Amino acid sequence: MEKIVVVVEEVEVAITALKWALHNILRCGDVVTLLHVYPTQRSKSKKKLRRLRLKGFQLALSFREICNAFPNTKTEIVVTEGDEKGGESPPS
After folding, report:
1. What CATH number is given for 3-82 in this structure?
2. Residue 29 above 90 pLDDT?
3. What region, left, alpha or beta, does residue 9 occupy, with left being phi > 0 and alpha being psi -120 to 50 degrees?
4. Which residues pair with 33 in a beta bridge?
5. For residues 20 and 14, what is the distance between their CA atoms, to the nearest angstrom?
6. CA-based, 20 to 30 A from 84: which of 16, 42, 44, 72?
7. What global pTM score does this model have?
8. How many Å apart are CA 59 and CA 76, to the nearest integer?
9. Mean pLDDT of the chain
10. d(CA 26, CA 30)
């Protein structure tokens, strides 16, 4: 069993990458991880962070719909806060 990680973004190339991975890499028993990283906010407004997290999760759900077209595809969704350099922000 392998884990395939695909970045979830609001750009067509992200959907293309997911479809490519499903057609060319996915094997029976593999898990597709749909990863969305929303930007770190300086204001730390809980309402704004919640909204960004929810938007990322909704976007990841739309990517999961694409995965569901492939039989026996296992998916997991990870939505996290990160910086512009790709580092994950420390928990608040």
Report:
1. 3.40.50.620
2. no
3. beta
4. 5, 76
5. 10
6. 16
7. 0.82
8. 13
9. 87
10. 6
